[in-house]
Amino acid sequence: MKRTSAFLSVLLLLASCGGGKDETPAAAESPPPAAPSTPATGASVQAGRLQDSRTYTFDAAQLPFGPMPDVTAETDRWHGVLNGAGYRVEVPRNWNGRLVLYAHGYEGLDPALEVSDIPIRRHLIENGYAWAASSFSKNGYDVRAGIEDTNALALAFTSIAAQNNRPLPAPSKIYIVGVSMGGHVAAAAVERETQETAINKLRYNGAVPMCANVGDTELFTYAAAYQFAAQYLAGVPATAFPVTDFASKEDRIKRELWLVFPAIPTDQGRKLMAAFISLTGGPRPIAEDSFRLKPMQDPVWRRFGDDGTIDGILEKNIADTSGVVYQLDGDPALSAEEQTMNSTILRVTPAQDANPRRGDGLRWVPKVNGQFDVPVVTLAGLGDLFVPFSMQQIYKRRAAANGSDRWLVQRAIRTPGHCDFTIAEQVDAFEAMVNWELTGTKPGGDEVLDAATVGSASYGCAFTRNTTGSDDPDALGPVRKLLPSCP
């Protein structure tokens, strides 16, 4: 892929910068020989679930919020606490009767809970929509808490309005929008299993999961597989899981794979790039560019060395690399080198009871089985390393297997990072979902499973909007501006 000298300069600049907070590839002609496996019940087992021992609190002083600048629509704004979670609610005076719930992204293990405004707030209130957002009662990758607390807030909407001296009827429509982990919340919230097992039961009319983990536990398989590939290709292969001494090996691994991390790979580093592209959805625009950016790599590498319990959300390992086929080139047939890698690289299998259905509500990691019957429109970045494009392919296969794909539209955006969508792209997706739900007219989307389509130079151009507005003047950072343009 051709790059301008300016883009190379940005790569080298970002190679010295830090990052911020926050399915198996195509089958070979014959399956690889069996490789060593680590039992799921080894060192990753915890004495109880760590998440249950953590305490999360919020500062009530951060709950109040003012009117949005330069918006003429008059709104009522309410805040408070519900079941240990803070919330914000905003209702225009010319409310159209529709309510949008917003699920925020992963906040790490920070004990302080926070409420985030929905990114498309301006669009919503200027068009008569009410919106509401919860801090969730727990941080960490607690999608279960995210669903229950968001559902509870939606169910309490009319009570909150009445308490604030504005009696309102029940919403005519309720939609859910989420980003990153919140995208997992949004996708799982409309699943049949959630409808059956949630404590706070709510039926949404549509969902927009953005940069979302719509592969549920497959995301953590990807992280483990990527780590094993990096170690193997650096000549420091993992021999047991979890790799408890990964931190002491990290510098050596990077020296073997890059001359300058991650902008200038060695020959082995280029093999890792090929493995990464295969693991994350196959050849496609932007993938190689993102692989060479430190702010995109760093959040993924911070997950390496984990024990598969998702920081204590589970008691036992959930990662399963037993079926991963590692590819070091674009040919789906396994070369001799690839056969050796696949037969000798460490494999890890999950505990059978790591994430079972429960009798007291949702699973600890709620499933996205692809069983839903309301419109869902997703946004996914082609270069996202943290929640890769392959999650969209997993989601599509699951939905197709369950006959739900007729309710699914997926859109690929030409972005290098995680959740770096413009407001225009988010508004387009939201309005596409709403119009579909109201009129029955299915909107346009992108094919995600056909390799030739995904690999074409123009892939992702149809729904990428490289425009900025007053809400997101910095949405197009220096890297996105310099990415290969659409033909």
UniProtKB/TrEMBL annotation:
Q: Which InterPro entries match?
A: AB_hydrolase_fold (IPR029058)
Checking PROSITE patterns in the record gives: PROKAR_LIPOPROTEIN
Which residues constitute the signal peptide according to the record? 1-21
- Superkingdom of origin: Bacteria
The UniProt keyword set, sorted, is: Hydrolase, Signal
Name one molecular function that GO assigns to this entry: hydrolase activity
Stretches the record annotates as Disordered: 21-46
What is the protein named? Alpha/beta hydrolase
Record the organism.
Noviherbaspirillum denitrificans
